Amino acid sequence: MTPRDLIVDVLLTLGVGAQLICCVGVLAMRNAFDRLHYASAATTLGPLLIGAAVLVRESVSAGGLQAIATVAVLFLLNPVVQIATARAARRVEEGVE
Prior knowledge:
Blueprint: H1 3-28, H2 32-41, H3 45-58, H4 62-94
Helix pairs in contact: 1-2, 1-3, 2-4, 3-4
């Protein structure tokens, strides 16, 4: 096992662990607004760590560039999805149609 493989394994373990914590948080929270916090965290830290692992493994190749693009799209579009979801949840709570 090379140091590069060890770095990839550590990054993947941390990324998957972060995703699991976010999933448990979504399941454990009682209302939609609390769940949104965990759902938004699932599009930041976990994918960043997993993307970094892919980038370390693939370097700057097609796979590495695709990982960068995927993480960037998740990170940049997350606020749009979160705001739309929060607005929809608020409308449902208030009974506005």
